[in-house]
Design a protein that fits this description.
79 residues; mainly alpha
């Protein structure tokens, strides 16, 4: 993606949020298939996973919700 560094993370987070919503609520978005939305989210997630972890809004991922929640939780077995 060719964008200024100041807006790049915001644009990527917006795209990821959009694909996650389409994957969760396919009836609300009839112009795109839910499978394609999940693939798009998965590609963005695998490439830019640090944005998901630093973004304050919760991603209810249709692809890997347990993985994202596990990464956000502080581990009790650190010491």
């Amino acid at each position: 993606m060719h964008a200024r560094p100041e807006v790049r993370e915001h644009l990527l987070a917006t795209k990821m949020r959009k694909w996650a919503l389409i994957g969760q609520h396919p009836a609300a978005y009839p112009n795109c298939s839910p499978a394609q939305a999940r693939r798009n989210f998965s590609r963005l997630f695998s490439r830019y996973s640090q944005i998901v972890l630093t973004d304050k809004s919760g991603y209810n991922s249709p692809v890997q919700p347990a993985f994202v929640r596990a990464l956000r939780k502080p581990s009790a077995t650190l010491f």
